[in-house]
Amino acid sequence: MPDPKTNSTANARLEPHIRALKAQGVNVTPDASSHHLHNGIDTPLPPPDLHGNYTNQRPLPTEGIRDLRAFIIGSGIAGLSAAFFLIRDGHMPAGNIVFLEEQSIEGGSLDGAGNPEEGYIVRGGREMEMTYQNFWDVFSEIPALEMPEPFSVLDEYRIVNDADKNWSKARLLENQGQIKDFSRMGLTRLQQLEVVKLLLARKEELDDVTVEEWFSDGFLESNFYTFWRTMFAFQNWHSVLEMKLYMHRFLHLMDGLNDMTSLVFPKYNQYDSFVRPLMNWLKEQGVRIEYDTVVSDLEMHTENGRRTVTGIQCHTGSGDKTIRVGKNDLVFATTGSMTEDTAYGDDDTAPVLEDRDEPGSGSGWQLWKNLAAQSDVFGRPDKFCGNIPQSTWESVTLTCKPSPLMDKLKELSVNDPYSGFTATGGIVTLTDSAWLMSFTCNRQPHFPDQPDDVIVLWVYALLIDKPGDYVKKPMPECTGKEVVTELCYHLGLMDQLDEVLKATRARIALMPYITAQFMPRAKGDRPAVVPEGCTNLALMGQFVETHNDVVFTLESSVRTARIGVYSLLDIPKQVPDIYPGQYDIRRLLRATRTLNNDEPFPGEGLLRWILGGTYFQHILPLGPDEEEIEVAKPGVLEQQLQAIRGLIENNHTVEDARGWLQDVVEKIRGRF
Predict the structure, then answer these.
(1) Active-site residue, from 127, 394, 545, 604
(2) pTM of the predicted model as reported, rounded to 2 decimal places
């Protein structure tokens, strides 16, 4: 840990600039969607969504940092990242940081455990991509899991993914294991306009609006929505505002939505890939962690609208206690939880949720509820945890020895699953499954200690309250063997079911709040990272407000932690807004063509006519099997002009409109 005093000479020489920076003030969370981009004397800081080395400067230490303590409630990826930023950018001594973790292991929802005999289990997985600016910033400095120093987790990740492109050859299945055509989005022109309308809508217009209230029935039956809902776990009754944010956040990945070429995956499960190396680094720095500590409430002193945490109420193995918090100490709390109160099952046992409408005794929801009871600035947790049937789905982890199921898996995978390379390339969805079941096989081994002859599959379903197609029960009432039976039915393996069951171990996780973060919401339902008036408290995780980022990603958790650290320590450094792909004309044109079933979109012919053969020709999207040299050909323009002419002639009787169109057509033809 560098001593701020050692740089006093250099600081003295920069003192005029340091004073000017403090006087200017820095907006820690700039919002690119609320500014007109320009260069001028009124824009001394980098653009809000600038990514890259220029935004990664080391800030100066906060005055008195060595005397401050930080208490971090929850050791999920948000909490772990908060500790990282406190150390790296806040210059806080690691020994001043204490984790209060309710479980006996760190990681929160990023779990991964088990063995080949009893079966492995991961409650969920993380689909990732390259523009996670905050997440990759952390892991560019964390030592690699298996490579020697000085290599980082990011270095290791890049070696795996750069050498092994992710893609899917069987994204959709039907008719008991037959690959369904998934090359097109299947949207009509009117349904495409529904998407455009959502992109153009202001966020303020979408409070408490659901997906099914915004989109037509036909849209909800399209390939596009099947890709979307199964990849991101959206339900029809979820927030259309969150769907809009997803569209903006990942617009640059639209043309990889159907075949999963937009994704990158770790070598192992999420716990071993990310939690273990980051926690190891933090412990080596001197961070302390108190396990089996359930935090129930925060005591606060309130005066003149300012709220300062003075105590942390918690329950430990040795009883209840209150940790005293100094007025200059910091508290970071993860509120809400996607995986709290998980019910488990196995081969012969179905999971059983406790019969209650209220969240259980874990710290995530109870802490948030108790905070919300103190003030409206802490949001409305009941909007997210108050409807368990609409926020629940179930996952099943299968530990598989060789069997006909593995033979079928090889048929559906881009590489032999035993090769160590990409297997299914993401989830494979059974489109005619009553449960809307999907399964995936990531790179194997999925666990470092996994035997060579074992494959780990992950299965989940969205419509779990419906009877299965073969097992005539809702999914939560099924044992692991019954879930495997339903899967085998949809893969055409019923003649070999006994052999599959004998070689497969199933472990079930039924999660009552797994999509709670997607529930319809309005302004004020989620608190700010630093709620109004709070002097030493920051909230983190999936249930706090950010300008433009989405929920249900590793990136959003890390972003909230970084905002909290920078805000409470008054660090003059911006947390960059989301990747600006939505403003990139290349991405917009490519996404437009993708949504139009990879056919020329209205106006594309005119763009080709203008830009074909120029320096900017490369921004135009290529069609299927189209060569670069074909971009400048006039065929698309001619076709679209004829279509426009036919549309006007069939729908307008005014003669001068026809004449105007004829003049335009003739003038354009004269250019060729």
Answers:
(1) 127
(2) 0.93
